[in-house]
Amino acid sequence: MPQSSLISLPALFIPFSLLAAPEAVKVEVLQNKLDHPWSLPFLPDNQGLLVTLKDGQLKRWQAGKGLSDPIVGVPKSGQTVREDCWTWSSPRILNNRAASG
């Protein structure tokens, strides 16, 4: 394989979004001063996202409303199958089967 092919081969693995013009990329801070955010799953139908903090708190973020108080009824850290590996991914999580693996 010619040397020029070896140099261009890694370029195939660069995501095309990184090749966009800098003015086309928009970064926006939605919430700051979070204490160890652990997981940020998006809720369906533009309902915001859930913010799981490393200490086990679960909060909801919504556009125009910001971050909620901690959601009550969430198991404390360590009560899950594997501590610090719990990810909430459904607004009906308490009615769903526990997702652990």
Summarize this structure briefly.
With 101 residues, the protein is mainly beta.
Overall description:
The chain has 101 residues and is mainly β. The chain has a domain at 34-71. It is 6% helix and 15% strand. It has one helix at residues 3-8, and strands spanning 37-39, 49-53, 58-62, 66-67. Strand 2 and strand 3 form a beta hairpin. The longest helix has 6 residues, at 3-8. Mean pLDDT is 70; it is low at 1-7 and 79-83.
What percentage of amino acids are in beta strands?
A: 5-15%
Strand order of the largest sheet: 1-2-3-4
Class per helix and strand makeup? mainly beta
Order of helices and strands: HEEEE
Keywords: Oxidoreductase, Signal
Protein name: Glucose sorbosone dehydrogenase
EC number: 1.1.5.-
Pfam families: GSDH
Task: Describe the SSE topology.
Elements: H1 3-8, E1 37-39, E2 49-53, E3 58-62, E4 66-67
Antiparallel strand pairs: 1-2, 2-3, 3-4
Tag the structure with descriptive keywords.
four-stranded antiparallel beta sheet; Glc/Sorbosone_DH; about 100 residues; signal; about 15% strand; 4 strands; Quinoprot_gluc/sorb_DH_b-prop; EC 1.1.5.-; 6-blade_b-propeller_TolB-like; elongated
